Amino acid sequence: MNAPHESQNLRCPIPDEMIADLQAKFGDRFSRSNAVRDHHGKDESPFPSMLPDGVVFAESTDEVVAVVKLCDKHGVPLIPYGSGSSLEGHILAVQGGISLDLTRMNKIVALHAEDQTVTVQAGLTRKQLNEQIRDTGLFFPIDPGADASLGGMSATRASGTNAVRYGTMRENVVSLTVVTAQGKVIRTSRRARKSSAGYDLTRLFVGSEGTLGVITEVTVKLYPQPEAVSAAVCNFPSVHDAVECVIQTIQLGVPVARVELMNAEAVRASNAYSKLTLRETPLLLFEFHGSEASVKEQAQTVQDIAKDCGGMDFEWAERPEDRNRLWTARHNAYFAGLQLRPGCKASTTDVCVPISRLAECIDAATEALSKVSFPSTIVGHVGDGNFHVLMLLDPDSEAEWAESERLNYQLVMQAIQADGTCTGEHGIGLHKKQFMVHEHGEDALDLMRSLKLAFDPNNILNPGKVLDPRM
Amino acid sequence: MNAPHESQNLRCPIPDEMIADLQAKFGDRFSRSNAVRDHHGKDESPFPSMLPDGVVFAESTDEVVAVVKLCDKHGVPLIPYGSGSSLEGHILAVQGGISLDLTRMNKIVALHAEDQTVTVQAGLTRKQLNEQIRDTGLFFPIDPGADASLGGMSATRASGTNAVRYGTMRENVVSLTVVTAQGKVIRTSRRARKSSAGYDLTRLFVGSEGTLGVITEVTVKLYPQPEAVSAAVCNFPSVHDAVECVIQTIQLGVPVARVELMNAEAVRASNAYSKLTLRETPLLLFEFHGSEASVKEQAQTVQDIAKDCGGMDFEWAERPEDRNRLWTARHNAYFAGLQLRPGCKASTTDVCVPISRLAECIDAATEALSKVSFPSTIVGHVGDGNFHVLMLLDPDSEAEWAESERLNYQLVMQAIQADGTCTGEHGIGLHKKQFMVHEHGEDALDLMRSLKLAFDPNNILNPGKVLDPRM
């Protein structure tokens, strides 16, 4: 597959002096072994591996500072590494350099249950967090499927199934501790719920994909575990009907916690992979959070809408184990999809459009998929106007890759024409850089470039991602 | 009162060539009359007037571009002007220059009711907006009291009484059209509900106070008008008890739409000014939005909490006219306060702290106010941890001004120690610049300065606000 070829030309190996410094400081937490480099040089994206020259396992913000300063001094690229679950090539070492593994920074720094915030080290994953705070009666809702790290989720502005009710990382990060390209440690905001004190550095680092600074601590909002939760499946005769139901639900302001679309192929894959017996037509997976009364009210409203849209009766999953089975199946939709074509490599689209334009965009995707030569599924966080086409490709076929890229291009350009975005939640990484100019225009990109230059003048922070320098 | 004295030294008058260009282009929409300059050289802050050298009344983004380019070419300061309701000196022309009046840019550009967004010109005020969209069944909830322009509200990251439920301008601005310091027109984001496509320029311009670019159009979220609304007043024996009730309400996750604190002095002032008969003890003003059932449920929960905290029975205002009377009184609390001391000048504090620290901070403010020589009131958007002390000062008394500044300093430093902010919603302007380093630290401020330099290298955009250059 056609990976960026800049890698070989721009590669700058680590100078011997820096290697000696890293060995002295980190001992065996600095590795140049092939196995460790290989592990840090690939992600869930369709790109081939691109290995860093070395990997440092940091255990504190101070250690991150030390690594950043060495990289800055020697002009060596630095790539923060969380859980490696990127779908767009964020952590690939296109210019070599150091992969800075933060997985050992996985402690809770401060839990403020009474303020419903928690501060964690960047390497803690969302599941680890929720396990550790379960007894507080609070939970962290953002759920991108993968068990991503909080640092990685901040860096890609992640969201997922609960975003329709609880927002994305944009709304849920309160404050960040960041090591700048110059090795300074800043905190981007204080812990008050709101502030008008100067430029919003928090939101600037959220979604910056490791290119403006290294996030080492994250303070996020927590929410009371809802008094009542119920989940339901509703089958529809067509994807279009299901999408219509979602649009009306959102427009009516029903505060659904999750509403997920799966097309018939995605259901079939999940049945096979997760041993379920869901009816194999397009379906919506709903979850309602609130008081007992409010959950009942929401569910009734949505059932009425669904019926109007041709939906069948709701099938309920009220017991936690049934809900878990259902959501595990949804979360495994990616891996279930992969099993539709054993040995395949997946490429995923990620457009997000205003809800009024969602039906036409999904219809166009469905129509286009009926003509391609590879298997595929469609799943979507449709309450946000966000959906994914999972394209299951023969890893050895240049033709299928080219075909999938053409389809992605077509869907993205249609989304942008509909006032939408090339990426709702996966980020730009390597794969979406080509669309930045279509989405933002050259002048806005110039502002972003000037910002990158101001924050990282030596271009050491995850170079080659998000933006290319102006030609 | 001790206004910044830099103004005289740094003042750069408009060159004759630029005056001629402005006259040619704008005719009588370019004014250098004393009356017009005077109107644009003062706001609701305690600072004395600082007049611009001229005022341009722009009617389109293209006209804004023309003015920005002239200012950039000649190095003349440019100050965007919305409704002049700043409390912190944002629009004062500390270095002279052009005040760019956007009030004639007050049209709705595009209403997308089905997506619950509206795009407006920056000069449209929030009341104008809500009047014009009333028939759609939607409303714009952010309500800072003053009938501010959407551009000004974006520029100061405003919030107000509804923020506890609906968020601030940070959460509610979807996209901005901005004229950069170089006279380029950018749109900061597309209209999808979420995106991970590059740096968050939207959030960067929200709260930038006219120092990074001129906002000319704003796209904001709208919300369905709630099916049911009810409001209630609850009196408490002390401010401390009232605050305890709020803290428990928020911690329980009750989705109150508004919860406002008034201390006894504020109630007294409102009774006199707004001809009300509220019991003159500390009170909370609640508003609940939702379905009939949900509003009942919320109200019952909060009544139970209030009772536990020593609150009296709720007094309900269910008819729209009664609610309006109540909220008008709350909105007029500022002007009501001024009437406590006819002829006075007001200075307002604006700290915001994590909710767990709110009681101690308000207690300290109450204690400190018992010792000062001027009258005062306390009101607060306490659900957000945000409260204001309105200090009513003799405009001729340097001693009172100094005393009020000492009190503000004390409250801000306590808030910052409590992990809070010097300004919850009013912005930095001139008045809070001294606190930026305490709140953010020198290294974060350096990042903000590098950002300002990257976006506005000639320092023409509202110079002297938010940040001072590094000494």
Overall description:
The structure is a homodimer of 471-residue chains. Chain A is globular. In chain A, strand 5 (108-112) and strand 6 (117-121) form a beta hairpin. Chain A folds into 4 domains: 6-104, 2-Layer Sandwich (Uridine Diphospho-n-acetylenolpyruvylglucosamine Reductase, domain 2), CATH 3.30.43; 108-224, Uridine Diphospho-n-acetylenolpyruvylglucosamine Reductase, domain 3 (2-Layer Sandwich), CATH 3.30.465.10; 228-335, Alpha-Beta Plaits (2-Layer Sandwich), CATH 3.30.70; 343-417, Alpha-Beta Plaits (2-Layer Sandwich). Chain A contains 18 helices and 18 strands. In chain A, 60% of the residues are buried. In chain A, 37% of the residues lie in helices and 19% in strands. The first copy, chain A, is an alpha+beta fold. Chain A starts with 5 loop residues before the first helix and ends in a 16-residue tail after the last helix. The first copy, chain A, has helices spanning 6-10, 16-26, 34-40, 61-74, 126-132, 150-155, 163-166, 169-172, 201-205, 239-251, 264-274, 292-308, 320-331, 333-339, 358-369, 398-417, 436-440, 442-455, and strands at 30-31, 54-57, 78-81, 98-101, 108-112, 117-121, 138-139, 173-179, 185-187, 214-221, 223-224, 228-235, 258-262, 283-290, 315-317, 345-348, 376-381, 386-393. A 7-stranded antiparallel β-sheet of chain A has the order 15-12-14-13-17-18-16, sandwiched between helices. The interface between A and B is large, with 90 and 90 residues.
